[in-house]
Amino acid sequence: MTDAVPALKAENVRMTFGETRALDDVSLAVEPGEMVALIGPSGSGKSTLLRVAAALQPADNTSGPVAVLGHTMQSRGRIASRVRKNRARLGFIFQQFNLVGRLSLFGNVMLGALGRLPVWRGALGMFPNSVKQAAMDALERVGMEEFAARRASNLSGGQQQRGAIARALVQGAEVLFADEPIASLDPVSARKVMELLRELNQSDGLTVVVTLHQVDYAQRYCDRTVALNKGRIVYDGPSNGLDREKLIEIYGPEFETAFYGGEE
Ligand SMILES: Nc1ncnc2c1ncn2[C@@H]1O[C@H](COP(=O)(O)OP(=O)(O)OP(=O)(O)O)[C@@H](O)[C@H]1O
């Protein structure tokens, strides 16, 4: 723990959909520079937690506050009035559809700067040279410069994810929430995306919170793992502390057969 303002602080967050308690008193603090995996069975509340934390979705009116880099995003089910400003240093990567398909990759990456440009510039697509340079640098950083002119819809899933990360870099994101960024990728592309996130975390100090279905990716790339089950945190600790017993506790007995093939 440090004295720094947490990158993410969620206190007693509650989110209900009809009868379903998607988040049941979730409290979580992530320090700047951490790379944290969010795991848990399907429907355990991983995506909801990220969406609530980014204030893409209002939580229950009985819910405690969520802050990103010390700025309140929402509290008691009310999105903060300055949320747009507070989101400036937060990047969000979804499983799919991160890029505008009809635009070039370069055009997409430049969109990361929209928040700090006058509206007319964005509307006319007139980006200053500084933004063009930043977009090119970001594409180089994610190893995608040779695809700059390619229409986004003609890129592979993994290339699109790397493009989305480049856009977050142009945005100047210091915290990145990635919601199942590798769920629809083949293993090689998935590895490249995770390696890139890890590299940005280690070299640039980018704070990363990433939801994952694959426990082995969490263990390989993230020092810390938070596991949810039925909207509650059931594990929060070092990823290498997730042993067979703990994983069966998190995912249920089916995990044994799925992950270990049922062997002794
Ligand atoms: N918009 C919604 N309307 C109704 N129920 C929802 C909505 N979004 C999520 N839920 C429910 O809330 C619970 C948590 O969903 P969430 O998508 O956060 O889980 P998850 O852990 O991300 O699952 P997965 O790994 O399958 O993506 C689930 O029971 C889900 O059905």
UniProtKB/TrEMBL annotation:
GO cellular component: membrane
Cited SMART domains: AAA
Pfam annotation, one family: ABC_tran
SUPFAM superfamilies named in the record: P-loop containing nucleoside triphosphate hydrolases
A GO term, aspect molecular function: ABC-type phosphonate transporter activity
Residues covered by the ABC transporter domain: 8-255
Entry keyword set: ATP-binding, Cell membrane, Membrane, Nucleotide-binding, Translocase, Transport
Database matches in CDD domains: ABC_PhnC_transporter
PANTHER family: AMINO ACID IMPORT ATP-BINDING PROTEIN (PTHR43166), PHOSPHONATES IMPORT ATP-BINDING PROTEIN PHNC (PTHR43166:SF6)
Protein name: Phosphonates import ATP-binding protein PhnC
Protein's organism: Maricaulis virginensis
Gene assigned in the entry: phnC
